[in-house]
Amino acid sequence: MSKKEKELPSYPEGFSQPERYTFKSEKGLNEQIVRDISARKGEPEWMLAYRLQALRYFEERPMPTWGPDLGALDPNDIYYYIKPVEKQRSSWDDVPKDIKETFDRLGVPEAERAHLAGLGAQYESEMVYHNLQKEWEEQGVVFLDCDTGLKKYPELFKKYFSTVVPANDNKFAALNSAVWSGGSFVYIPKGVHVTAPLQTYFRINAEQMGQFERTLIIADEGSFVHYVEGCTAPSYTSSSLHSAVVEIVALPGARVRYSTIQNWSRNVYNLVTKRAFAYKDSCVEWIDGNLGSGVTMKYPAVVLKEPGARADILSVAMASSEGQVQDAGAKAIHLASHTTSCIISKSISSNGGQSSYRGVVSVAPGAKHCKSSVQCDALLLDASSRSDTYPTMKIYDASADMQHEATVSKVSDEQLFYLMSRGISESDARTLIVNGFIEPFVKELPMEYAVEMNRLIAMEMEGSIG
After folding, report:
1. In angstroms, rounded to a whole number, what is the distance separating the alpha carbons of residues 301 and 313?
2. What is the DSSP letter of 25?
3. What is the pLDDT of residues 62-98, one digit of tens each?
4. DSSP states of 419-436 as a string?
5. Residue 148 lies in a domain
């Protein structure tokens, strides 16, 4: 990503506040910084040992070269830990004024009042606000930041932490494991259906900031939860890094839906690892929207571990400016018989942007009668943009039923003529066509998030004429 900012002028979330912190680490990464993070959090010895081992994994692994160019990302030019406040709050009135003003402008408190069962708000490296409605707390639902989850539920936390995404999984999972801070810890008891979404909103404010939240969701047998994630950052000319890890455990009969609308500013590298384990007759759904960032590498995965497990992955990626790369996709790993996966990926490229689908479907030897369907659709809005597809299928059992379909299309003159003949401007006509293209994604979002998604698409489409 070029040091020159390529931010679209219509990015209203690109504002910043003066830096507020009670502690800020030195720039760069070393063992002392990792030890300091752990000490400031008062963590047990096993977590410090885990962090230090992860740091060694990170240092030993080279930068990945199989995807987007990461050559301009300098890990030593990042601040790895900024603590904005001394204490997390459960009332917005107690959050410092400038931080509350940030979330007010983003509409976060309003969304909580109207639509959510619980909300967490992370600012820099720590959660500054967290709250769960009393009715769900009384049913045994646990919704905390991950740091508090480690302290209050140490046995449950340790049982599942890093079991889905181990520290040595990849270079950036190792980085997260070394310096993780914040994120969500969710436990849904047996049979409990949380009927309103839980949401966490992640906000980077400081320049050259690294945000490394860790999210762990455990859905016990027969339960249901919908977790929604939102994120934004100011527009700077220097790079920031977002490198999260999400682990989901869907126990027998559980259903977990994880929805993301990623809208980072163009100076952010978004390099994340998201994976779920699905047990007998469970279902994991990833609803993944990627509009922002300069470079995104994100491939939500579901490992289908027991019969009857299902994965539904629906993703949209939009690369709408020169130099922007959306390298997104999905993975479905069938380890057990009679498992099912469905992957639908849609990408839009305009103004010289580049979008890619990169996915894997794997069926293990002896996994009988597995079914998988993959559909990749790309929409190019001009001749200077690019779309690529990198599908991988590893099928080791002949009884599998596999389907794969890929299409690339352009906005046709006939479509534009028809809409413009009805009095619609060219820019609005293009936006209508794009909205129709991503309709399968938007209809899976709660109404208030669907409205927000359409607003973001309209903003991204500004300047896409030609």
Report:
1. 8
2. P
3. 999 999 999 999 999 999 999 999 999 999 999 999 9
4. HHTTT--HHHHHHHHHHH
5. yes
Residue type, 306: E
CB 303 within 8 A of CB 276: yes
| Beta partners for residue 372, in sequence order | 341, 402
Which two three-digit tokens encode residue 301? 């995965």
Q: Do residues 264 and 293 make contact, with C-beta atoms less than 8 angstroms apart?
A: yes
In a domain, 374, yes or no: yes
Residue 234 C-alpha from the chain's centroid: 18
Please choose, from the candidates 375, 409, 378, 380, the residue with its C-alpha nearest in 3D space to the C-alpha of residue 391: 375
Classify 51 as helix, strand or coil: helix
The backbone region for 42, taken as left when phi is positive above 0, alpha when psi lies in -120 to 50, beta otherwise, is: left
| Closest-CA residue to 326 (of 415, 386, 284, 408) | 386
Task: Tell me whether residue 4 is in a domain.
Answer: no
Within-domain flag for 402: yes
70: β partners: none
Convert the pLDDT of each residue in 395-431 to its tens digit.
999 999 999 999 988 887 888 888 999 999 888 888 8
Dig out the tokens for 166 from the structure: 């181990």
Residue corresponding to tokens 């949209």? 316
Provide the CB-side half-sphere exposure for 363 (13 A, CA).
Answer: 23
Number of domains comprising the chain: 1
CA angle 271, 216, 313 (to 5 degrees): 60
pTM: 0.94
| Count, residues in the chain | 466
Instruction: Please state, rounded to an integer, the average pLDDT across all residues of the chain.
Output: 93
Nearest to 311 by CA among 326, 319, 322, 300: 300
Tokens of 355: 């979008």
- Domain holding 184, by residue range, is 12-461
Helix axes 97-105, 108-115, angle to 10 degrees: 70
274-303 pLDDT per residue, tens: 999 999 999 999 999 999 999 999 999 999
461 touches 320 (CB < 8 A)? yes
Please give the Cα distance from 409 to 11 (Å, whole number). Answer: 27
| String of DSSP letters for 344-396 | EEEEEE-TT-EEEEEEEEEE-TT-TT-EEEEEEEEEE-STT-EEEEEEEEEE-
Euclidean distance between CA atoms 369 and 340, whole angstroms: 9
Quick one: tokens of 31? Answer: 């063992």
Burial zone of 52 (CB within 10 Å; 0-12 exposed, 13-18 middle, 19+ buried): middle
Q: CA–CA separation, 25 vs 86, rounded Å?
A: 15
Q: Both tokens of residue 178?
A: 């070394």
Residue 465 pLDDT grade (very low, low, confident, very high; cuts 50, 70, 90): very low
